[in-house]
Amino acid sequence: MGTTHRTDQQRSADQRRRELLEAADRVVLRDGPQASMNAIAAEAGITKPILYRHFGDKGGLYRALAKRHTDALLAALRAALDAPAERRERVEATLDTYLAAIEARPQVYRFLMHPAEDAGQHAEHAFDVGRHSAPLLRRMGEELAQVIAERIELGPASEALARVWGHGIVGMMHAAGDWWLGERPCTREELVRGLADLLWGRLAEVDDRAGGPGF
Amino acid sequence: MGTTHRTDQQRSADQRRRELLEAADRVVLRDGPQASMNAIAAEAGITKPILYRHFGDKGGLYRALAKRHTDALLAALRAALDAPAERRERVEATLDTYLAAIEARPQVYRFLMHPAEDAGQHAEHAFDVGRHSAPLLRRMGEELAQVIAERIELGPASEALARVWGHGIVGMMHAAGDWWLGERPCTREELVRGLADLLWGRLAEVDDRAGGPGF
DNA sequence: CCCGGGGTGTTACTTGCGGTAACCGCAGTC
DNA sequence: GACTGCGGTTACCGCAAGTAACACCCCGGG
């Protein structure tokens, strides 16, 4: 049992961490982002200090939690982005992948992006998510920028332009998705087509309304 | 002093509120969004309960504070959007107006959009801004959607499409602006041109890089 | 002239959370 | 059997939001 024990402990270190993260996930999904450390600890069947031993502080726990979901989402997006198809099809597939993800797990999405959306009794003391939501958008923007820079010929200053576009497109996707998720004003396909049309320059082509110059 | 005083009190009710808001503004600009109610009260030369009498709770204070800046920004954007010029010029002017605003008062911008960016000793207990940043983006998106729907002929389902575009464009502007403000990778003009080019369909037109299909 | 009422302001408190120090008990070891 | 390392707990601190209860001040009315 000598070395076996050592391994057990080794294993259980990582294992424990994963269990704690899953417990935290459950609580966050149930209670929303304002889940307290106490509640998470209770869900995991332990008490606060252990959480702090594992994650340092609340931000650390959040970061670990967010990284899992973020990595999964980014992997899915990369897959859609790298699929062998026409550019427009790939753009639509990527948009659709993102929107399907946030549609499928809106609680996770809200946790990643919006701090303290729902109002518990005391809605304060929520996860300080906002500070970390930017990193997610940034990561997506940088990833997209890289793909654009790699794949498309943009002439001089292409690297800078690719980054502008990467962050811009990600922001478009994010804001439109957020609004759509809240109001559900149309189907996912319609939203995807609308956004792709926008990216495809329809804004420049469509006519003004009768009377006066257009937007 | 009879009726004069009544008026004084009346006046000073609104006046007071404005003074408190300006004090809060100063503190938020100095201490960042994690400014405490105590600190704001101290800056205003009074104590907490008065703040609560005026604004109900912290969210109320924030909302009042945000409304001022939001209204001002929206007014500026509307002006740029309504200027008599070609569509592309107006789009660029609007983007530039927004970017100039966030560039001129980044503290205000961070307060409106990002909760607790800077890290004080205890970076927690910040304004729960995230919950309210969405409304700002939503308002901008809805405003833009309205302008688009009014001015541009989008065919059937034009209202829905206008909203998609409104929120999408606002999100693009926001995310790109946020990234740009953090990294300053290029001049404002370059950013504006890059985004306008994106909206003008350059993504659909540019060639792939040599070897393999493009994005 | 005193007296009650609405407005402004204060002190002092409660509650609840993030974070930490100090202690507990049980493996396995010498 | 005493020693050590580690998972775990209780009990606590600090701090911020929010509140209750009290103090002042200026007024119109008896």
UniProtKB/TrEMBL annotation, chains A, B:
Name of protein: TetR family transcriptional regulator
UniProt KW keywords: DNA-binding
Pfam families: TetR_C_32, TetR_N
Domain HTH tetR-type: start-end pairs: 14-73
DNA-binding region coordinates: 36-55
Keyword ATP-binding: no
Record-linked InterPro entries: DNA-bd_HTH_TetR-type_CS, Homeodomain-like_sf, HTH-type_TetR-like_transc_reg, HTH_TetR, Tet_transcr_reg_TetR-rel_C_sf, TetR_C_32
